[in-house]
Specification:
The chain has 92 residues and is mainly α. The chain has helices at 6-10, 21-39, 42-53, 58-65, 69-91. The protein has a single domain, classed as Arc Repressor Mutant, subunit A (Orthogonal Bundle). 73% of the residues lie in helices and 0% in strands. α2 (21-39) crosses α5 (69-91) and α4 crosses α5 (69-91).
Length: 92
């Protein structure tokens, strides 16, 4: 099963003012780092980093953090919603 990127998971449309795709990707990456590091709960941050940046599966994350797979899934979903919300706010 091919894993999608954090950017793909957000299903986020690019900022219209960025004509260059590389420019958009760079800006999006910077914004993601800021939102993840400063706006997510500790558990949400752990799950996002382990899943998207370290490439771990939910089962592995659950074992590492000592929580259920369901808790990992809920944390990931909540984090993605929060990230998307902050990115939408930053667009305005």
């Amino acid at each position: 099963m091919k894993r999608c990127s954090l950017y793909d998971s957000l299903k986020f449309t690019p900022f219209e003012e960025y004509e260059d795709e590389k420019c958009w990707q760079k800006k999006a990456a910077e914004l993601l780092k800021v939102v993840i590091s400063s706006r997510l709960a500790r558990r949400q941050k752990q799950v996002i980093v382990l899943y998207y940046y370290k490439g771990m599966r939910q089962r592995e994350i659950a074992k590492k953090l000592g929580i259920s797979e369901s808790a990992v899934s809920h944390a990931k979903i909540a984090a993605l919603k929060r990230i998307k919300l902050y990115l939408e706010l930053l667009r305005r």
